[in-house]
Structure formats: C-alpha cells, structure tokens
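Much of what follows relies on a compact textual record of a protein's fold. A record is reproduced here so that you can trace the correspondence yourselves:
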Amino acid sequence: MKEQTPPVERVVIFDEAQRAWSQEQTSKFMQQRRGQEGFDKSEPEFLIEVMDRHEGWCVVICLIGGGQEINTGEAGLLEWLDALQGRFTNWSIFASSLLLEDDYVADEKARERLEQPEVEKRPALHLSASMRSFRADNLNAFVSALMDGETDQARKHYAALRAKYPVTLTRDLPTARSWLRAKARGSERFGMIASSGAHRLRPEGLNVRNSITPEYWFLNDRDDVRSSFYLEEVATEFDIQGLELDWSCLAWGADLRWSNNNWSNFSFRGTSWQKVNAQTRQQYQLNAYRVLLTRARQGMIIFVPKGDASDPTRPPNFYNQTYEMLLRVGLPEA
C-alpha cells in the first residue's frame, strides 16, 4: 500500500467489473481486514491509481456483465466512470456501444457519463458469443425479458431457444431431481440452486441459510453427500455467480413473486414476509434471479412450490401466479 513504484503488470483484466466495491465498502474492508484507517477510495479508483504510476502506457480491461450486481457495496459501472472522468482525465476510455442498454446501465447518471464524447464507443468490444452455454445463444435475451416483466418478448425468445436449450417447469421436487439425473450424461454436473432470500423453501428440504462448501459442492463426485450431485445442499447466487453447472434446478422462492403483471419483491424477517420498497434492493433481488437463471450450460428445470394453505408464510397464492406466468411464456411442464 505504501509502495509507490508501478506494478510489473501493464495489463489488468477485472472480471465482473460491475461488482467492484464502492468507496464505503472498500474502506470497511481495509479497516476490518487490513487495519488501515481512513482509506477513502473505491476499488476502481484505487486500481486505476496504482496502474497510473506507469510511464508510457498501461491498460485496464473491465469485463462487464449486465444485471449482475447482487450485493450491497457493489458499485456498478458508475464507479469506474467517476474515477476516470474525475481524477484520471488523461486516460482514454473505450466502451462497447451496448453498454448503453438497460441491462448494463442501472441509472441515468451512468448513462449520461457513457454518452460523454470522451467515451469512445466500439461495437467490437461487445463479447457476443456465450462461453457459458454452447447451446444457449438466446438464453440471456430470454432471461432479460423475463426479469424485466416483458412476457411477450420472453415468449418469443424462448421459442427460439427451446430446441437447443430445454427449460422445464415442475411443482414437484422429486420430479425435478429425476429430470436432472435423466438429462445428465457421463461427467456432466447438475445441482440445486435458489435465491439466498428464499427462506421458506426449508419445508421442501432446501435450506438456503446452510452454506455449501464450494470445493466439495462443485468438485466432488457422485458418491459424496456434500457434492451438488446429491441434490440436497442448495447453492445461492453468492455461491454460484461466475461459475456454472451443466444442468440446474432453480427452486423458486416466495421472495420474488409475479403479481398483477409485474414482479413483487419480499424479504423474510422474523416470522413473516416484508415488502421490499427500496429500489436498489429490488434490483439486487431481480439480479439474483438473473444470475441463477443463467448458470446452466445445457438446460434447467424450474421448481415452483405448491405452497401450503395451512402455513401463512407460504400459501399457494405466493407461488401460483409465478408458475402460471412461466407457463404462459411457453415453458413446458415436466
């Protein structure tokens, strides 16, 4: 931290750059984990400051995923632009023209910054080929439309997707497990995933508050009860972001419900669900499902519980409209 010489590297690649920490989150980390008081820079600003020590040239490559911010303290695209257009005006900025689309720009301030003439737009900087799924060229478009509540568009995108990439529905968890086992061939990996806010999946035997051990869950074989293959331990968006399976079962929780032609957001507090009103938290929740819906390379099944009329924390109406909407966009039942 005190060393002012430039690093050996002249090129830095920052994956998931939209998840870089804000100044507040970075300061908190430096104080708690490094014992350094008074740190006043965001993660983007600090990185650019270090690279700016170079004479001649250097490059910072930011890989931006649309709609991937899922946690408090993740600054988004704006923090990079703030640093570059504030302190480091001598840097040249190149960006994909697609960054102006809604999936990438969370607010108007970031859009305004991107539209400034010093940001040179290069269409070739958009990485259009999906490396996660060789089958799913239309998956991201389908998921984006679904999370934006554009059901007509979601139906069109799924129609183009379904021949190569199956997305199936069920309300029966044993059926979902059987579907995964039947689909997987050889060493293809499958597992159960769910939102970290889906606390009332516990009666279904899925407890999102029990953390997985990632190295066991992702790497161990079928004979290990801790592995994803056993379909007992459930990975959340925090466990699986940036990683993938061949086949997945997404267990849909009551934290995100389709109601009156739009998404409604909820958080389980104590013994009941509370409406989420803060826009940032609503976006984090939508992004969590966006991440979960794009983790499978070859296909997925979505399990929507039936609920229980005798349980006020999970009555059928918390789930029914979501299931019916997914049917309307064309997803077949298993």
Q: What stands out?
A: The chain has a mean pLDDT of 91. Residues 139-328 form one domain. The chain is about 30% helix and 15% strand. The two ends are 55 Å apart (CA to CA).
